[in-house]
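Q: What residues go here?
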């Protein structure tokens, strides 16, 4: 099986995309070998390019979501720019868009219209709330959808709900758009037909809320916000160590509690004490349970605490920050770091988490400059030098 090509080699994707949800989906496709043509605005491109300058003067969101793509800058409000996109779509396998609700339909770039004209095309509409219903036209930024989906209600401390520190709604929608494209490609392989794919941020994140949602609608009680603790398991939290760090541990059953009591806490009697012997008892006495664990781990350095917990067979982790993630020994040992090209030189990036042993490594292409591939793509669309010059002169292409 050595030397298998990338699984999406030969697949062409055209994307009129911005921000995170759709770009994150198409980056997964690019990593698996698809050719992704990113259509951007002539006046600054994808607005995620301007979010920050943290990645060696480039925007960190853009670097994360847009490697391996070709950038063409077009004004889609001009019929000539829109014609170029239609030419590109005519030769594509997949089209993805996450324009504001209604904008794609006004341009004739919605999935239903495109699939009617191109029966083999897979066309993906990524939206905030879906194509119908009372929320269809609402603005749908990630934080807003986290609130609407109830994620914020279960994240944080008892006194303070907080949003997730990553764009969870965008990522959820992006991953369902990615998997939707893969499913549609498989179906096209057997039927010869493409078809529309629709993904909304709200519905994607609502699916990810499955555990607390089922806990509430079937059990009648919403899980409490518990910070790093677990609402129904104890001990399960981050505990301070003697050197100022914190160790997170999770006791999943009463056998593990007995091992923790004997080998880490040094108090084997707690394993059979009725006030701590069962998880239900430990949850009832959570403050006392946590105090016992904190006392024991607080006398140990982080490495010593982790070694004791590992030896006792207790699930544990070091509470790392992002700099420590960058230096994580497991990622280093598995050689997960690579460099990708960009307009400002090579940038460090992680291999995508999908590994296909026996095949080619993920195709981690360069992060494109705005309009870097405009000239080549216009020529590939059949335009003459005079037509290209006119588009550039009139600001339709950049």
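A:
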């Amino acid at each position: 099986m050595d030397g298998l090509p990338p699984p999406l080699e030969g697949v062409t994707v055209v994307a009129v995309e911005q921000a995170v949800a759709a770009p994150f989906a198409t980056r997964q496709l690019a990593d698996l070998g698809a050719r992704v043509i990113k259509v951007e605005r002539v006046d600054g491109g994808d607005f995620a390019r301007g979010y920050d300058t943290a990645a060696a003067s480039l925007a960190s969101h853009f670097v994360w979501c847009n490697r391996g793509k070709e950038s063409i800058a077009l004004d889609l409000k001009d019929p000539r720019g829109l014609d170029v996109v239609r030419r590109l779509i005519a030769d594509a396998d997949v089209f993805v868009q996450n324009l504001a609700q209604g904008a794609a339909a006004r341009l004739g770039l919605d999935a239903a219209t495109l699939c009617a004209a191109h029966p083999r095309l897979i066309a993906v509409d990524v939206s905030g709330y879906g194509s119908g219903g009372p929320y269809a036209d609402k603005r749908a930024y990630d934080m807003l959808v986290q609130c609407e989906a109830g994620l914020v209600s279960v994240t944080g401390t008892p006194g303070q709900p907080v949003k997730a520190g990553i764009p969870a709604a965008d990522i959820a929608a992006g991953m369902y758009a990615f998997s939707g494209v893969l499913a549609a490609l498989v179906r096209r392989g057997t039927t010869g037909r493409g078809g529309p794919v629709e993904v909304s941020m709200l519905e994607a994140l609502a699916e990810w809320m499955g555990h607390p949602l089922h806990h509430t609608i079937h059990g009648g009680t919403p899980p409490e916000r518990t910070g790093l603790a677990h609402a129904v398991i104890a001990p399960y939290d981050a505990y301070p160590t003697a050197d100022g760090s914190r160790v997170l541990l999770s006791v999943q059953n009463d056998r593990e509690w007995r091992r923790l009591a004997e080998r880490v806490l040094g108090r084997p009697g707690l394993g059979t004490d009725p006030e701590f012997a069962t998880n239900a008892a430990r949850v009832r006495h959570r403050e006392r349970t946590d105090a016992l664990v904190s006392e024991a781990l607080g006398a140990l350095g982080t490495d010593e605490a982790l070694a004791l917990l590992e030896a006792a067979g207790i699930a544990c982790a070091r509470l790392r920050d992002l700099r420590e993630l960058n230096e994580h020994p497991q990622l280093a040992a598995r050689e997960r770091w690579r460099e990708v090209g960009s307009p400002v030189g090579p940038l460090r990036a992680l291999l995508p988490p999908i590994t296909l042993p026996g095949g080619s490594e993920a195709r981690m292409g360069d992060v494109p400059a705005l309009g870097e591939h405009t000239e080549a793509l216009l020529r590939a669309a059949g335009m003459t030098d005079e037509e290209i010059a006119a588009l550039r002169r009139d600001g339709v292409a950049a």
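A: Context that may help when evaluating the design: The mean pLDDT is 95. The longest helix spans residues 168-191.
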